[in-house]
């Protein structure tokens, strides 16, 4: 599992760095948000379509994973707040061929569907999706991807304070914090520029 995780992270990191650094080096601020169609050409069609299918498969799976904490939080709160409500607490057994028994909750069906619809509408309303996504990524990158894992590793491995390894990890954390701050500043600047020509449901 550790080797598979390492290989996956290294692969995605390599592609992200190539897209970010090489794209910016080649096009500067004019680098398109969508590398598949942002350059004005759509051929070969089969390659663009295949890439879009891969993106859709990736996002469908990732969306479910990232939404589970929100689903669990809301559903747990509602079950504690209204334990006697049958709409919230009741589940109906459904026999699905080749799968077995599946328990369907009307509340989960309605709530999760409504959540997906609302988030989709919000995403469509924001035409400056790339800058908004960049701001969210910058805000979450350092604390969730760098700071907390490094601090947990230091505590778990009992790394002595001010040792060479401890200092290197702290320098790495500080450097990534600077990267996050710079990325957030760039995203805020992009949002401020996009708001001036804001039109709902219309991409820039």
From TrEMBL:
Signal peptide bounds: none
Subcellular location(s) of the protein: Endomembrane system
Key word Ribonucleoprotein present: no
Cellular component GO terms held in the UniProt record: endomembrane system
Keyword Membrane in annotation: yes
Function of the protein: Carrier protein involved in proton-driven auxin influx. Mediates the formation of auxin gradient from developing leaves (site of auxin biosynthesis) to tips by contributing to the loading of auxin in vascular tissues and facilitating acropetal (base to tip) auxin transport within inner tissues of the root apex, and basipetal (tip to base) auxin transport within outer tissues of the root apex. May be involved in lateral roots and nodules formation.
Molecular function GO labels: symporter activity
Keywords attached to this entry: Amino-acid transport, Auxin signaling pathway, Membrane, Symport, Transmembrane, Transmembrane helix, Transport
Membrane topology according to the record: Multi-pass membrane protein
Residues that span the membrane, as ranges: 7-26, 46-66, 109-126, 132-150, 171-192
Name of the protein in question: Amino acid transporter transmembrane domain-containing protein
Domain Amino acid transporter transmembrane positions: 1-191
Lineage top rank: taxon: Eukaryota
Family to which the UniProt record says this protein belongs: Belongs to the amino acid/polyamine transporter 2 family. Amino acid/auxin permease (AAAP) (TC 2.A.18.1) subfamily.
UniProt GO BP: amino acid transport; auxin-activated signaling pathway
Record Pfam families: Aa_trans
PANTHER family in UniProt: OS05G0424000 PROTEIN-RELATED
Predominant localisation class: membrane
